[in-house]
Write a sequence for this structure.
């Protein structure tokens, strides 16, 4: 349900309402399954509306990419949750230490209560509904804050969730940065945030006031490493597909490419061919997405202006249209390390190429920098690939492709260090929004009676045995 007011007091009142309802009747298995089924049906029926809303919010957004990245992913996640929920909810037997025989133990999976979800603008549907669905599957109530940068999509999310859920089970709040700050400071039982590292720090600081546990899905500079000898045509095709999806406005998009110096020229030529064949005229192509707003476009244009002024070679692979915020696919060669596009997450269709004549040099380059959200390694040499996997810690990895690890329901997704903390997708999302509650059941007779005062000779012998 949409909240009519946007003051911290109003948000706190709505949180109290959600929490009171959860305490009265935490959702059981049947309720969770029904909620997820109704969410799937209602969302599936509105897919075309969501694609149109995102198209309007961005100025132009590929319909196919919207249906796949913001449609298929949500439906697939809900299906996976429903298929496994009964097994995940079942208490798990654990072996009690022999010393405590005949006690028995188990781990019960309990819902946390009320979960807050702050969603971003780049994938405004999937990155709102996927964590929401996981929280619902875990038996929680949810308060969602969609991004104000995609207002039509946010309003459609509000309408969808108001149709599916009663107002004391899921609430949707709409507003800008001031409301988001107040939202992050609420005493949730868990707070889930997707966005930039800079905002993530603020969210974590706000949540710390109430010791609210947080999951932060952030970003960073995700490298692609092309090993010597790897087929460049394949590397170009797969790196370009991941980079120019959503015009690079993807947290796990390849942020820069490390490759041998001899491969630079053919890589550039291959990229030009890819853009020509796949998009043609990017200004006219319905498959190429606009930059979401003027502020983001200006940031990216400033990155390129700074690179040109510093002597880097900027190669636009097609014509663009600033008036429609269409920034063309662009390669940057020879960029200095102190430039903004080499220091900040790019989050747009700009791809720097960095010389690394060996896989070892590439490992050293990446390992010397903050840990990335994603790592992409292109190599048919298994031993070298293993060295990369051992030498670099990243949030997730695709070998010989890009971004596809995100779509795997059985794989956890999440960052590490500056690229995030915590993880979700599938069972990992279910556990993120649950408390794994350990329980010991004591028997009528227990050996622990032998280790209670007053301590005598038997206790002495037992202590000597146990501490030998």
């Amino acid at each position: 349900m949409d909240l009519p007011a946007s003051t911290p007091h109003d948000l706190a009142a709505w949180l109290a309402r959600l929490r009171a309802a959860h305490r009265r009747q935490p959702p059981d298995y049947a309720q969770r399954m029904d909620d997820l089924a109704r969410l799937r049906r209602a969302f599936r029926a509105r897919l075309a509306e969501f694609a149109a809303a995102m198209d309007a919010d961005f100025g132009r957004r590929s319909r196919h990419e919207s249906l796949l990245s913001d449609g298929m992913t949500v439906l697939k996640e809900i299906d996976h949750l429903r298929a496994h929920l009964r097994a995940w909810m079942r208490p798990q037997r654990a072996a009690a230490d022999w010393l405590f025989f005949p006690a028995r133990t188990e781990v019960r999976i309990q819902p946390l209560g009320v979960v807050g979800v702050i969603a971003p603008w780049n994938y405004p549907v999937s990155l709102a509904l996927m964590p929401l669905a996981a929280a619902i599957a875990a038996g929680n109530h949810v308060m969602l804050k969609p991004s104000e940068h995609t207002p039509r999509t946010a309003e459609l999310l509000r309408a969808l969730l108001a149709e599916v859920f009663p107002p004391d089970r899921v609430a949707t709040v709409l507003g800008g940065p001031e409301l988001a700050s107040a939202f992050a400071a609420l005493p949730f039982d868990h707070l889930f945030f997707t966005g930039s590292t800079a905002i993530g720090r603020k969210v974590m600081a706000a949540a710390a006031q109430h010791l609210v546990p947080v999951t932060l899905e952030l970003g960073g500079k995700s490298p692609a490493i092309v090993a010597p000898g790897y087929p460049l045509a394949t590397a170009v095709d797969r790196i370009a597909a991941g980079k120019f999806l959503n015009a690079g406005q993807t947290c796990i998009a390849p942020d820069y490419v490390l490759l041998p110096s001899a491969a630079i020229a053919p890589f550039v030529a291959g990229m030009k061919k890819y853009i020509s064949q796949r998009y043609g005229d990017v200004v006219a192509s319905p498959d190429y997405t606009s930059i979401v707003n003027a502020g983001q476009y200006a940031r990216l244009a400033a990155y390129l202006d700074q690179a040109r002024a510093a002597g880097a070679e900027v190669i636009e692979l097609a014509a663009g249209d600033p008036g429609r915020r269409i920034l063309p696919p662009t390669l940057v060669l020879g960029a200095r390390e102190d430039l903004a596009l080499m220091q900040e997450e790019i989050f747009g269709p700009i791809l720097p190429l960095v010389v690394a004549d060996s896989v070892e040099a590439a490992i050293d380059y990446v390992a010397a920098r903050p840990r990335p959200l994603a790592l992409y390694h292109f190599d048919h040499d298994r031993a070298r690939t293993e060295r990369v996997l051992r030498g670099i810690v990243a949030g997730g990895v695709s070998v010989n492709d890009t971004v596809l690890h995100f779509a795997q329901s059985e794989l956890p997704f999440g960052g590490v260090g500056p690229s995030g903390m915590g993880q979700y997708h599938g069972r990992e999302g279910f556990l993120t929004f649950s408390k794994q509650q350990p329980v010991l059941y004591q028997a009528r007779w227990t050996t622990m009676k032998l280790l209670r005062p007053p301590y005598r000779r038997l206790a002495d012998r037992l202590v000597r045995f146990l501490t030998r």
The domain at 223-414 is CATH 3.40.309.10 (Aldehyde Dehydrogenase; Chain A, domain 2). The radius of gyration is 25 Å. The chain has two domains: 8-218+420-437, 223-414.
